[in-house]
Amino acid sequence: MELSKRLRAVAGLVTEGASVADIGTDHGYIPIYLAAHGTAGKVIASDINEGPLERARIHIQGQKDVCGKIETRRSDGLKAIKPGEADTMIAAGMGGGLIIRILEEGKDVTEQMKDLILQPQSEAGKVRSYLNGHGFVIVEEDMVEEEGKYYPMMRAEHGTAGTYTETELCYGKLLLEQRHPVLREYLLREQRIKRDIEVQLGESESERSAKRRKELEKERKLIQNALEYYR
């Protein structure tokens, strides 16, 4: 089975031989890929909704080489996953706020996990901040562009995180240190977008425009700080 660039990058963060709980599995593509390639010996494919879970079951049944390696389970986050059942959690393609809620509510499960592989669709900085403040350290990051959209992702382990600046939280300390080329593309695009918005605001003196200008000034400063890593 061929994965999208985004999902392939997420799967690439999984450690060989892991037992995986894929939270919000949707079509079950990542569990099938991990089982078929021998990356994971056991995968729990879970979703809160029965519809996506049924689609995942159909896709799994259509792949004979993964028979017996994947279990589907209806679960709200980690609530139906027992501590010790999996050493790796994947949460990809959902908002950062939802990922944080899942981690917060599933502390008894994540305490016994080795890896958290997270791909937030929004608020990645808040996810990094949560990990850093709750006994996890980000040990690997990646970012891909697919069909005009940019997807950051990270792998975290138990440990003590070092000091992060606001820029590093926002855009990813490891991505910046690596001078990741996809992050640079994203930063330059965001820089252009901010400039265009400022032009659109023009000389308006409304309270709303003034507030937005202040926000843009902060956002542009963070982008500029991030681009300094590429000098």
UniProtKB/TrEMBL annotation:
<protein>
    <recommendedName>
        <fullName>SAM-dependent methyltransferase</fullName>
    </recommendedName>
</protein>
<dbReference type="GO" id="GO:0160105">
    <property type="term" value="F:tRNA (adenine(22)-N1)-methyltransferase activity"/>
</dbReference>
<dbReference type="Pfam" id="PF12847">
    <property type="entry name" value="Methyltransf_18"/>
</dbReference>
<dbReference type="InterPro" id="IPR029063">
    <property type="entry name" value="SAM-dependent_MTases_sf"/>
</dbReference>
<dbReference type="InterPro" id="IPR006901">
    <property type="entry name" value="TrmK"/>
</dbReference>
